[in-house]
Design goal:
4 strands; alpha+beta
């Protein structure tokens, strides 16, 4: 009995001496496509990013056929670090400031890093840069060109 108490007391003391891990940094959420795979190509990478943007913005998106006349089209330039951290996002092309604001907010609404991009980056590049096109309907809901497919 005395030996068991000594072992238990030692275990308690040792566990009290353990350091705790630093707070977790923003990383891909478990179960998301970004956490499960690395993109094999630039097109595959853009598809993973587009899926994350769509998942984070369900109430701002629409599915199905695009309207014959799109009221707004916004092209954003995104820069992502090797670990998938969004480094910058800017409007490349737009004629509608309200749609531009919706598109920028949609990208920033993604709560986790994008997929790691280091393997797709040029040798001395600090970021992986690409564009995404937001296609808006009359209610200012969007689809992403990468995922919309042929219409």
């Amino acid at each position: 009995m005395r030996h068991a108490i000594i072992v238990l007391a030692t275990a308690v003391l040792l566990s009290a001496c353990q350091t705790t891990a630093p707070p977790a940094v923003r990383t891909p959420a478990a179960g998301t496509p970004a956490a499960l795979q690395l993109a094999a190509s630039i097109d595959a990478y853009k598809a993973l990013v587009a899926q994350q943007i769509m998942a984070a913005n369900g109430e701002y998106t629409f599915s199905g056929r695009l309207p014959p006349m799109l009221p707004a089209i916004v092209v954003l330039d995104l820069s992502v670090g090797p670990d998938g951290e969004l480094k910058s996002v800017r409007v490349h092309r737009s004629r509608d400031s309200d749609a531009s604001a919706v598109a920028l907010a949609a990208v920033r609404r993604v709560p986790v890093f994008f997929p790691p991009a280091g393997h797709l980056m040029h040798r001395h590049a600090k970021t992986f840069d690409f564009s995404e096109t937001f296609l808006f309907n009359d209610q200012y809901r969007f689809q992403l060109r990468t995922l919309s497919g042929p219409q």
